[in-house]
Design goal:
Elements lengths: L2 E7 L21 H13 L1 H7 L6 H5 L2 E8 L7 H14 L2 E10 L6 H10 L3 E7 L3 H6 L6 H13 L4 E8 L6 H14 L3 E6 L7 H7 L13 H17 L3 E4 L2 E3 L6 H7 L4 E4 L4 E3 L3 E5 L3 H9 L5 E6 L2 H14 L4 E2 H8 L8 H5 L3 E4 L2 E4 L7 H9 L1
Parallel strand pairs: 1-2, 1-9, 2-3, 3-4, 4-5, 5-6
Antiparallel strand pairs: 6-8, 7-8, 10-11, 11-12, 13-15, 14-15
Helix pairs in contact: 1-4, 1-12, 4-5, 8-10
The chain binds iron/sulfur cluster (SF4).
The site of iron/sulfur cluster has 11 residues, from loops.
Length: about 400
Amino acid sequence: MSLGIYIQVPFCQTRCTYCNFHTGVVSSARFAPYAAAVQTEIREHQSRLQQAGIVLPNSLAQEMNDTVYFGGGTPSLLDPEHLRGMLDAIRDMFLHDFREVTLEADPETIDAQKAAAWAAAGINRVSLGVQSFSDLELQAAGRMHRRADIYRAVPILHAAGIRNISIDLIAGLPHQTPESWRSSLEELTQLAPQHVSIYLLEVDEGSRLGSELLRGGTKYSALAVPSDDAMAESYDLARTALSAAGYEHYEISNFAKPGFASEHNRKYWRRTPYLGFGAGAHSFSGTQRWANAHDAAAYVQSIASGKIPVEQAETISPPQALEEELFLGLRQLAGIDISLLQKIYGVPLDNRFTSLESSGLVKRSGSLVQIAPEHLSISNEVFVELMR
Ligand code: SF4
């Protein structure tokens, strides 16, 4: 077991129409105070967490920290010195042997000087928010970059020595057609990143496009959003194309060339402890989960006044832990070993899967249970069924 550290950078240049994250478009003058607050939170996390009623198990202090993940938002907007400062604070406060230090970056924010400074600071993996190779789709989604920026960014990262690159695509963007999706997948596989994430457009009240779709409106190109069936077909097409290009499908949304599965994200699915710093960051100690409040200004203010803005904290009971094992475990294509879970939690599990198995949604082989590959695109239905 090894500790993961997540740093949340909740700032963006603009708001993409489909975005349901807690991020804000703010003046760049707010970046330095935010980065300084995160450094303070890292350096003083033990005493501040204690004030908030959270006591870290002693065993966590002995854990090696081998992954760091800067997520957002758009962390690549920050000055590289800010990123370095936060990494230095982690180096000072934790036993560390960084194997994977990931930065989420938008293609248009990348230049040679920044990439070189990232590599010098220890960042060795960049997760590029590409989303599509079609300018029509990018524009409709309110993205700042265009296809040409992707082709500019990747060689810059390579030249800086960052060779572990992940690319995200979204199935279901407005104006996406089977042809444009196929073409994005072809361009992606030709660029041959080490890792790929495929997400389905989320339709909920949290985004401008989502609420427009829910109320039957026409703004944000809502009428040009593909149907649910088309999105599911796009997902299945991606699975086939990525498998043919040598990627292993290891988690519902994630695909990797051999040896390049995301070490950090695996910790979430395997319930390995991680500490999150920054506004809205989540943490898990093995027995407790907690989250900082989302508002970045309130976060900076709270750190300045000697506190930590922990908004929710809960101790995970054994039945909750078991539910997490099932949901997080089934997200991974390797599946779950129900004999092992029965032994750990002392609860019979066989019956939980009877109806899912008879409806073909899950596959069972001995004590191993996996979501049936042909139903991965409707995994939410599997999880709903599992809750009944
Ligand atoms: S760049 Fe990412 S986090 Fe920022 S608004 Fe767009 S989707 Fe949301």
